[in-house]
Design brief:
Layout (H helix, E strand, L loop, with lengths): L12 H38 L4 H27 L6 H24 L4 H18 L6 H22 L12 H35 L9 H16 L6 E7 L2 H8 L1 H18 L5 E6 L2 E6 L4 H16 L3 E3 L2 E3 L3 E7 L6 H17 L4 E5 L6 E6 L3
Parallel strand pairs: 6-7
Antiparallel strand pairs: 1-3, 1-6, 2-3, 4-5, 7-8
Helix pairs in contact: 1-2, 1-3, 2-3, 3-4, 3-5, 4-6, 8-9, 9-10
């Protein structure tokens, strides 16, 4: 019994498409190798076990195998060149279609013989139908084309050719049966791949997300900081780091308990995400400390964001299970300088935060341009 299908969440769909593209390359590479190995083998078997009545039949069989061979060679060449184009999936689809089409054409070629040749080719077509199901990327969606076109061509030939129906047609039932098996195999493989992808994404999300607040964690923020630092080194833009810390949060835990403290942190995370601009980022840095990253920042814009966040936290009060609590936030702000590392700009923001605490809390302080100096830029106890 197949397990329930798990759809891909919308926010992961772009990553899933990239994953499917990589899967197309891997499947196509393996299938191309198998095709180039097996085609000569089956050609020899045809000549040995079945035999050809004349030279014309030999060339017919070679020509029928040629498209699949050429597509397999093309796939291997593009794969080796590491061509970045979006060719893998359509080429894999065409290769699968050529394999089934090749066997369907041989079936049509031998249909009028009504003997051992037809049984032999029917068995080959049955195996091909099942085999290509294992090399599909989107399951049944791929098989609609891979099975549909050759099957309709075979039906049309049988109906319009006037060839007599086989005396013992029981072996022809293998073809639709194989198609049914192929649909089941392709569906199971596709759904299993989806489940594997979702599990991988969830694991990665857990590794980069703070479990309590749902915000990115320290590890995740380091990735974004590295990206902004690289852009800044190229002279493309300047960024700002805001170090934020809840005021007297220990007193909340001591007086109301850690469960209420967790509620405060969760509400705080929501206020961060609803207050910040689209390109700004926030992460839980540790305990009640949070780090905000402001791309393309100036002193004015960074301090404006800091003040906006401070006001959003201060008002209204936090609705918790212990009642409405007045919560405030102190922030240290530092603009990255060309000569400093990520750790250095964070250190300056941390020193500015310490100064904000010293000056009375519930305020934002900007780190000065000279190393080790800070000055209060905005202070408010409202």
């Amino acid at each position: 019994m197949m397990r329930k299908h798990a759809p891909i969440p919308t926010e992961w769909w772009a990553d899933f498409l990239l994953n499917q593209y990589s899967r197309s390359r891997r499947l196509g590479y393996l299938l191309s190798g198998v095709v180039l190995v097996l085609l000569p083998v089956f050609t020899i078997l045809d000549a040995t076990l079945v035999g050809y009545s004349n030279g014309e039949s030999v060339w017919k069989h070679i020509l029928l195998r040629l498209p699949a061979a050429m597509l397999a060679i093309t796939f291997l060449l593009l794969h080796r060149k590491k061509d970045p184009g979006l060719w893998a999936y359509p080429l894999l689809l065409t290769l699968n279609l050529s394999i089934v089409g090749m066997m369907a054409a041989m079936f049509v070629l031998h249909y009028s013989e009504q003997g051992g040749h037809l049984l032999y080719i029917t068995q080959g077509l049955t195996l091909a139908i099942i085999a290509v199901a294992t090399a599909t990327v989107y399951g049944v969606r791929d098989l609609v084309l891979i099975y549909g076109l050759p099957f309709m061509a075979v039906i049309a030939f049988i109906v319009f050719s006037g060839s007599p129906f086989p005396d013992n047609p029981i072996h022809l039932i293998f073809i639709p049966a194989a198609m049914g098996i192929g649909v089941v195999i392709a569906t199971m493989l596709y759904q299993e791949h989806q489940r594997t992808f979702i599990a991988s994404q969830q694991l990665e999300h857990s590794a980069l997300t703070d479990a309590l607040t749902g915000l990115p964690n320290r590890r995740s923020m380091h990735t974004h900081l590295q990206s902004e630092w690289s852009r800044a080194k190229r002279g493309e833009q300047c960024f700002a780091v805001l170090m934020a810390d809840l005021d007297r949060f220990k007193a909340v835990n001591d007086q109301y308990g850690h469960e209420v403290g967790d509620e405060v942190l969760t509400i705080l995370a929501t206020r961060f995400t609803t207050t910040l601009r689209g390109g700004d980022r926030v992460a839980r840095w540790g305990g009640e400390e949070f780090l905000l990253l402001i791309p393309s920042a100036t002193v004015e814009s960074a301090m404006a964001v800091a003040e906006k966040v401070r006001r959003a936290v201060a008002e209204p009060t936090f609705a918790t299970s212990a009642g409405n609590l007045a919560v405030t936030l102190s922030l240290g702000v530092a603009l990255h300088r060309q000569t400093e590392s990520i750790d250095e700009v964070i250190s300056r923001a941390d020193k500015a935060l310490y100064r904000a605490k010293q000056e009375g809390r519930n305020r934002a302080v900007l780190a000065g341009e000279r190393s080790g100096t800070v000055f209060s830029a905005i202070a408010s106890n409202s």
